[in-house]
Amino acid sequence: xxxxxxxxxxxTTLRDGEQSPxxxxxxxxxxxxxxxxxxLRVDVIEAGFAIASQGDFxxxxxxxxxxxxxxxxxxxxxxxxxxxRAAEAIRPAERGxxxxxxxxxxxxxxxxxxxxxxEVVEQAVRSVKRAKSHIDDVEFSCEDAGRSELxxxxxxxxAAIDAGATTINIPDTVGYAIPEQFADTVRTLLNRIPNAxxxxxxxxxxxxxxxxxxxxxAAVTSGARQVxxxxxxxxxxxxxxxxxxxxxAVRTRQDLFDVxxxxxxRHIVPAxxxxxxxxxxxxxxxxxxxxxxxxxxxxxIHQDGVLKHRETYEIMRxxxxxxxxxxxxxxxxxxxxxxxxxLLELGIQxxxxxxxxxxxxxxxxxxxxxxxxxxxxxxxIASDTRQKEADGRFALVCMQVNSETGVIPRAQVTLMxxxxxHKMEAEGSGPVDxxxxxxxxxxxxxxxxxxxxxxxxxxxxxxxxxxxxxxxxGGRIVNGLGADTDIIIASAKAYIQALNLITAGAHRQHPxxxxx
Length: 516
Ligand code: KIV
Ligand code: ZN
Known about the structure:
Layout: E1 5-6, E2 8-11, H1 27-40, E3 44-48, H2 54-66, E4 71-77, H3 80-90, E5 96-103, H4 106-113, H5 117-134, E6 138-143, H6 150-163, E7 167-172, H7 179-192, E8 200-205, H8 212-221, E9 226-229, H9 243-252, E10 259-260, H10 268-279, H11 300-308, E11 330-331, H12 336-345, H13 353-369, E12 372-373, H14 375-389, E13 394-404, E14 407-417, E15 420-427, H15 431-443, E16 448-456, E17 465-473, E18 476-484, H16 487-504
Parallel strand pairs: 1-10, 2-3, 2-9, 3-4, 4-5, 5-6, 6-7, 7-8, 8-9
Antiparallel strand pairs: 11-12, 13-14, 14-15, 16-17, 17-18
Bound molecules: 3-methyl-2-oxobutanoic acid and zinc ion.
């Protein structure tokens, strides 16, 4: 038995992560990520904000019905209707949690809530009690704790614990804290609040100053025993503390931390890839742990050192976090069974046999073009197939693009629009520009293109290109994704997917935007 404390890993990729502009995910995508988190052995999955929309409610419920090994949590403002909806969504869970919050900083109480501190305490207590009437596991967060007054935090937290909160979360909502000071805050709260021993103290740090992981780790040294984090550090604005960095810091520096997690780190890289593929947010190459260069040694001196003795320059083993497990998987001669089995190992399960057949046909076509098929290729095929099968107003029928030195590029695109084929030709400054102009001439969406990015899914010139297109209309932002060995076709697919998302978009409530 280890003498170390357990550090609870609370993942909020599906809730705070989804608050990143453009990171909206479908129910099926959320379920895939939830399964990957379960495989990682995450303790608590914050599956969403149940009251935000019917879609969010259904996603939380589906995850609660499916995931068995992690606690499933829904966020709720300190309002009866939010708490009741959260309770309903998590009801099927083996273990469920309601996470309710209210802002505690003077600036939020005065300008956002327009409530007095006394009213805020009263509402917090009422909400914790209401949550407690549904479930035993209740988390209470003091939104903007990083800028709240210590005396007030002590008062409201003591009252919340008395009301039944079992976890108390101290969010640095705006990413304002500095490690030493944040550690001090958490230590003071633990020392001064008389019933602090009746709850687990948690932190939830945002990365506006690039300090989310540092602040979380500092809080752990002061006694925090839950950290809230996301895969790849996804999240509102500059994001949240990254799960992979927190977990590996605690594990690698066992000499400094009195805690351990139950995370199975071998699933970190696959989970990171999955989140990146689904959200369309590429992982920067030099990102710690999960970036493509995180374990690559370029300089001759480093390479020589690593070959002689790995630990000269490496503090972690690449395979311990899931690198290199994804080597060559399938080839041209692989059959349907091998294809299906590998997909299942990757956590990909199609809802219908038609989808599986469609994906297998794509796999065979890709294997003809590209001899080696990697896990990343399979993930791209899977998400592409799902998108094609998903209902959407627009679908690509065919396209032809002309690109020649000294000649203006032209694209001819045929789209299926509301069940009828339409064709359009356009010129552009390049083949992608010509393609998008042709599509826009047909659709006239009124969207602004905010981002266009291309990434090679694997190495080599025969790799599939994965394109992300971010569109904005009336303040709503969506990301479309497309993959193909031809990057112009991948671009068209991504653009069309973004158009389908923006036209299908339902209104969602933002948890922190609305007043209590
Ligand atoms: O950043 C924040 O304060 C939050 C809370 C809702 C926990 O996300
Ligand atoms: Zn947050």
